[in-house]
Amino acid sequence: MQRPSIFMLSVMTLIVGLVAGANISHLSFAPAAHANQSDATDVDRRYRELSQEGSAIQEVSTTLAKIAALSAPAVVHIQSKRRIPGKGTEEETGSGVILTSSKASGFFVVTNGHVIDKTALDSIEIHLHDGRTLQPERVWSDPLTDVAVLKINAPNLSAGRWGNSQKLEIGHLVLAMGSPFGLSRSVTLGIISAKGRRQLKLGQSSEVLNQDFLQTDAAINPGNSGGPLIDLQGGIIGINTAIASSSGGNEGIGFSIPSSLAQRVMEQLLEFGVVHRAWIGVKLDEKFDAKIAAKLKLDRMMGTRISDVFPNSPAQKAGLLFDDVILSFDGVDVQDHDDLINLVSLSPIAKKIQVVVWRGGRKMMLTIVLADRGEMPPTSQIPFQPEFGTPVRAMGLTVVPLDEDLADQVGYSPQIRGLLILKVDSDSALGHRLEPNDVLGAIGHTPVTSVEELNLAIEETHSRKSVVLHVHRASVSDSPEQLVIWRRTAQ
Length: 491
Fold this sequence. Notes:
Number of domains: 4
CATH architecture of the largest domain: Beta Barrel
Structural class: alpha+beta
Radius of gyration: 31 Å
CATH class of the largest domain: Mainly Beta
Strand content: 25-35%
Strand order of the largest sheet: 5-4-1-2-3-7-6
Number of strands: 28
CATH topology of the largest domain: Thrombin, subunit H
Shape: elongated
């Protein structure tokens, strides 16, 4: 590492010249069947050239060998046998890595939860690098990340060290270690192919909440699950967890849980026994696309759209509304709904967070105080509260009275009064005329500032096929009043 230029040259040569199979013409030779003395001398010369000019490549090779030798004693092979009702015994094999933690004394094996899921302690075997076999004293598991931690106790154990996955860049070299197909102490070389892979449907990952995988082309096969992904400083920057394959074997697309997530889960499990996750109390639109973004006046698809806000939640208290698009969370741009889930759930509980939302054609900043996800009531038990929004079935709208505080948050002047439209049903006759965040000020000549006044006005005009609505729109300069025709016959 004393000569960066030589090291970079050697990396390029290793990848381009060796892995890709490129010819290095001045080093290649093919002696004739009847070589004379001159030919033999030429062969000797070329061998000497290879010895000298291959030193840069040899430097990389030596570095990789040192990383493998340093890391190997911490890598373990895991075998588990679980009883499946009606199916007998099922065997599972995987890998793991020995680590230590500031949250608890001793040694621990970090692996994938699915490797030891629903398996008794005495049915789990941990095979060490030196041939010893151990059984764990205790197991912690977090299904929402597919991370498990196993407490082990034995003399002369060697632990690996966490690296920093947040410093990784696409193209960085990495080593994958583990026991593919039961072949322990296997090492493969590759690069970081991509970061932030989410929305994966990979068997055991179907219930994983926190998906933020590293993608690598280092060969990962069945049995590698739970093994470490290692950088060129010997740091563990990922826990290998899954592959994308049509054949069941390596096809150059493997996924690892980044160390920034795996280490946090390990420490939470050791300190609390569970992983504490934050919660803001919104339902996100998984079908948010460019078409919806354009309707909300975004120049491109970005962030994630709120499709519901739960009553008494941190989001409601902060003033988040239906159809808000969350663009930024705690200074980090939000890529999609899974990205926001990760950012929220892995943030400290009770922390005050600045969020940037897109509302009514402009950006605005709100402050939200994160709550504990463990205290979140099941969605089915969240009561509907009239003050949060009231459905008006006749019009296909959900509305809430606009007071001065809410007007300021939405972008209206304090003088504007009426009913703020939170939602327009997809089958509403007003679907192409009204938008969320519009304010309904009057029906005909009758002002409406409450749901009761609105229902009364609807009843008074029930005999009319067409009714004039007086509407304000924050995205229009100075929010002038607009006239919208509500044609009852279109319902």
